[in-house]
Amino acid sequence: MFSRVYIILRNAFNHTEFSDPYAKLHCERHGFTANTRFCFKCYLAKYPAYTVIGTLTLSILMLAYLMRLSERPALKAWRSWSNVSIINNIYMIVVTMTTVGYGDFVPITTLGKMVTITTALWG
User: Fold this and answer.
1) Residue 110 carries which DSSP code?
2) Core vs surface per residue 35-59: b (16+ CB within 10 A) or e
3) Distance (Å, rounded) from C-alpha 40 to C-alpha 38?
4) What tens digit of pLDDT does each residue of 46-67 get?
5) Crossing angle of helices 48-77/2-14, nearest 10°?
6) What angle (nearest 5°) sits at the alpha carbon of residue 73, between those of residues 83 and 81?
7) Fewer Cβ atoms within 10 Å of its own Cβ: the N or the C terminal residue of the chain?
């Protein structure tokens, strides 16, 4: 799923005003390429608030889904269904990203702990 999201985003960036033939020609004259990273930097310079909010929202949703996938088997085995909800996982990711760390939801599995560490560093 994550590779599909990446491919969709990469294709969306490759069909923008910053990757048309004129932009590619202009980039080649100055010695760099008009790739996905260049388009992201252009969007960040032109629309900073929308780019940051969109990146933050996408990060929260993807990390919450990854947390749900990593914790679901252990929670099913322990019959604790409270953390399986995607809303609870989004809450956990936001609390971890903002470094509040209430402790009401904690990861059980090793993969869940790795996702939490990644979330804390990303936040």
Assistant:
1) H
2) ebebbbebbeeeeeeebeeeeeeee
3) 5
4) 999 999 999 999 999 999 999 9
5) 170
6) 30
7) N
